[in-house]
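Same chain as my last thread, 256 residues:
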Amino acid sequence: MRKAGHSYRRVLAMSIIGMLVFPMLGIKGQIFTIVDRTRPVAEPMQIYNGLVKHEWQPFLEQRFLGHISSLRFLLILSYNEAKYRLFPSRPNNYYVWTPELGYYPVDTIRRLNGDVLHHEAIKQHYQRAAHRLRILQAMLSHHGVALLLVTPPPKVRVYPEYVAPYLVAPAESIMTQAISYGDVLEESGVNVLNAQHIFAERKSTSAYPFFAPTGFHWNFWSACSVTDFLMRKAEVLTGRSFLTIDCSDVRYGKSL
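reply #2:
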């Protein structure tokens, strides 16, 4: 009887693991490739000289990292998928999950609420920081260096509507009530690329969200677009030509 009980628990455990892993099999239609950007290390010609000169270590290290890269991807994917299915609403105290756009860090939601509740105090702090940056910008310009700051917004500042129950003001008006560091920098004369304005202007016409649903970072398309804006802004500040980044051929797929 004891042996039968152990077998039953083993079958039950394997069934639970299978239910978690089975949804991942639907991703098999996608093709993932890893492009090695590092120069391959040649295999040492002689065993003894290779040991003495420490030539085998970088060769074996590169081979080892190449073999575990696919395993690393599988572990990351399994971790994300398991969190999705085990904790569909609130995985822990640090993240909120939404069905529309995935994960939101709780600290960014608290920060947005704080930017509303303590608007004036935070504005004064930002103004002092902007004043120091304005001095630094002037000092660098005397040496022919153009200072350009990029202010990246968190997901909650671009898509507040999906976490409306956690906000202290209505999602449709909270951005007009919250202080913005990028806005204060612009008002103080600091050269800034305010990515929040870029996302806000393109939000209604964009076919894709700007953030990865399984994380809280920009997706590749968003990063590419902001980088191109950065190059154009640099051209205006320096009077020089910079490379053009074409983001039109970016294929949107499931994000890690």
